[in-house]
């Protein structure tokens, strides 16, 4: 896809989710359903789609799965959540992740991978549901485990659109010795994060991203108890024993509008974000292999 076409596609998805639909969570069920319907509609243009509906506390929620079939029984999951925190339109958190998910699917729709690639948009990642039985990614990961699905790993695309060149714009959890690890205080990079058990998958994913992209990036594997390490859908897969990582701009450690009413499309650095998506597309193809 040409850069201008990709930029337009990403912008369309982000604006539709954050402006046309806006705040989307169980307290605004019509908006949450509209977001799910939009993602399903866009995905059905590109691939086989299955909508996994589940019930929780009297409400219905949907995980939307688009599949690019592979030759082997093993799978790779690329996921992102489509709900928002209350009171925010969620342009960066997490329309940026969903837009990237759909763009990667668009580029790889005719790819012939060794592994089956499962692109999944999850409901209910945010605080009210995080870590609980109603969390969409936990429902999905539990179903994979129950079906004995072989999984190479899962990549969670979480808040990936804010980049800045200012010194002192990047912070870290207090448990992380940024100076000793050589981590920058400039928030201009994409972070690849995992727990210690997923380090091998983390290293492979980060290496493949670096091979195809000049966007600055950094990788960190740390104990799951470190603040922020587990804060996305990848942690649901850890609970099922699957390798999983988070790709992020680090959200609260950088983004001033995290869980804020001003999390709007104008805050996203579209040029850097677009280049990051190109790298994530190449990374996905490399992780899945080719027949």
UniProtKB/TrEMBL annotation:
It comes from the Bacteria. Signal peptide: none annotated. GO terms for biological process: proteolysis. Residues 63-275 form the Peptidase M28 domain. It holds the Pfam family Peptidase_M28. Coiled coil: none annotated. GO terms for molecular function: metalloexopeptidase activity. PANTHER family: METALLOPEPTIDASE M28 FAMILY MEMBER, PEPTIDASE M28 DOMAIN-CONTAINING PROTEIN. This is M28 family peptidase.
């Amino acid at each position: 896809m040409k850069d201008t076409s990709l930029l337009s596609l990403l912008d369309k998805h982000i604006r539709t989710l954050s402006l046309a639909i806006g705040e989307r969570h169980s307290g605004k069920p019509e908006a949450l359903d509209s977001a799910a319907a939009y993602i399903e509609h866009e995905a059905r243009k590109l691939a086989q789609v299955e909508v996994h509906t589940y019930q929780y506390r009297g409400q219905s929620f949907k995980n939307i799965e688009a599949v690019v079939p592979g030759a082997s029984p093993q799978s790779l999951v690329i996921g992102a959540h489509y709900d928002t925190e209350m009171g925010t339109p969620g342009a960066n958190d997490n329309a940026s992740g969903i837009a990237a998910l759909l763009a990667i699917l668009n580029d790889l729709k005719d790819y012939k991978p060794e592994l089956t690639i499962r692109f999944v948009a999850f409901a209910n990642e945010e605080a009210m549901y995080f870590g609980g039985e109603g969390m969409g990614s936990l429902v999905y990961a539990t179903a994979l485990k129950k079906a004995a699905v072989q999984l190479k790993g899962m990549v969670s695309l979480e808040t990936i659109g804010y980049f800045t060149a200012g010194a002192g714009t990047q912070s870290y959890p207090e448990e992380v010795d940024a100076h000793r690890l050589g981590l920058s205080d400039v928030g201009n990079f994409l972070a690849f994060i995992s727990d210690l058990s997923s380090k091998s998958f983390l290293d492979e994913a980060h290496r493949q991203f670096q091979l195809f992209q000049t966007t600055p990036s950094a990788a960190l594997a740390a104990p799951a108890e470190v603040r922020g390490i587990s804060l996305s859908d990848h942690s649901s897969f850890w609970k099922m024993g699957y390798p999983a990582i988070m790709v992020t701009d680090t959200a609260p450690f950088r983004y001033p509008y995290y869980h804020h009413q001003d999390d709007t499309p104008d805050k996203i650095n579209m040029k850097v974000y677009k280049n990051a998506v190109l790298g994530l597309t190449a990374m996905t193809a490399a992780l899945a292999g080719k027949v």
